[in-house]
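Feature request, filed as a ticket because there's no other form

It would be nice if the structure record came with a short human-readable summary line next to the tokens. Right now we just get the raw output. Example of a typical job, pasted below so the devs can see what we mean:
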Amino acid sequence: MKLEGKSLKHDFFRFIIPSLIAQWVYALYTMIDGLFVARGVSELALTGVNIAMPFVTLLFSVALMFAVGSSTVIAILLGEKQEQKANEVFTQNVLTTILASLLLTAVVLWKSEEIAAFLGATELTVGYVRSYITTIACFSVFFICSYSLEVLIKTDGYPMKATVIVTAGAVLNCILDYIFVILLSKGVWGAAFATGLSQLIVVLLYLTHFCSKKTHMRLVRITPSLSLLWRTIKIGLSSGITEFSAGIVIFLFNHAILTYLNEEFIVSYTIVTYVSTIIVMSMAGIAQGIQPLVSYYYGRKLPKKYRLLLKYALGFGSLFSIAAFVISRSIASPLVNLFISPKLSSLRCASVRVFHTFSYSFLLCGLNIIIGGYFTAIEHPKSAMAISLGRGFLFVALSLWLLTASFGGNGIWWASTLAEGMCLILTLVLCYWSRLRPAH
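Raw output as currently delivered:
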């Protein structure tokens, strides 16, 4: 079994590094279509693509929910030497993700106009939004399966292969975007089609592994189990919420900015969001990187090993957070200058101040995300869910309300730091309460 290598520290980095790279690539995925649409179509079309982004986030969150849930159960079963049962979990996960994808496709194609309006489409952008979400919806099975198989191939003991395939998909997406948007002038439809086609190719690449003799996961004949489905969803739900929370947080901040400031500051927040997304996904990459190992040793009832993995992750995550804080503050001014015209010098200065204030949240988010992922890996779904709901929605909404009531618009930029601080207190309480011990 490739989950056990030369040493625990070696295995930690063997899983963490590919997982980080994969998360960085996924962060770029969401930006590629926008870049090509902005250059090849128009700014209005780019607005339409951005409005449609929560739908793409939904696809990834559904995929991650099933992937993390099934991956955790599979790793535990492999640790317990129950390979046949692990194959049954793998098979049910594949069937469930396909059925969920088909259901999402049917709903979007049926109610595309209502969904576009719900996402925030206006009369000028509704055509772009509908074109993007309906085209992506036709490929939803490949979006969900590609993300799911990326997590499962790491659990199978091949983290670097997952990274290579994800990177190949991103490069292919760039090439196809250039062909369909720039050369063939297919607009927003072309961008969505290019992304969907690249996901299809990625799934085929994953299948070459899962159909080979190297894999420990095989499709077998099963009797569908609702209890197993619930166990999978219960474990993976917190990770799915974490993935989807980015869209919720952006909505809350945009609403507060428009209420207490003005539209100009949406630009400032957008720049911060680009950097924040990379950092948050990096922390999620650390959490996902240790998950197969932690679950495997949890299944083998070796607490010293999976607790040591948590210490490695927290140490590495803390160093990464400090580095991200320092680097992001040092590049704040040149980064802002890339997005804002020299004519708007006052907005440039204001955006740098916003960036510096917001960056304090980078120091805290990693601890919450990593420990939340650890709770998921050892089947403590309630604790993981509490952390995910706290940092993904509840504490953000509470912080925005408290700070804007006290300090008006200036309080908005401290809200993320306060929310992460509140969540960290909850995380520490949960750690003390459970003593980070397994349930069995």
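Something like this underneath would help us a lot:
Residues 231 and 255 are 36 Å apart (CA to CA).
The two ends are 23 Å apart (CA to CA).
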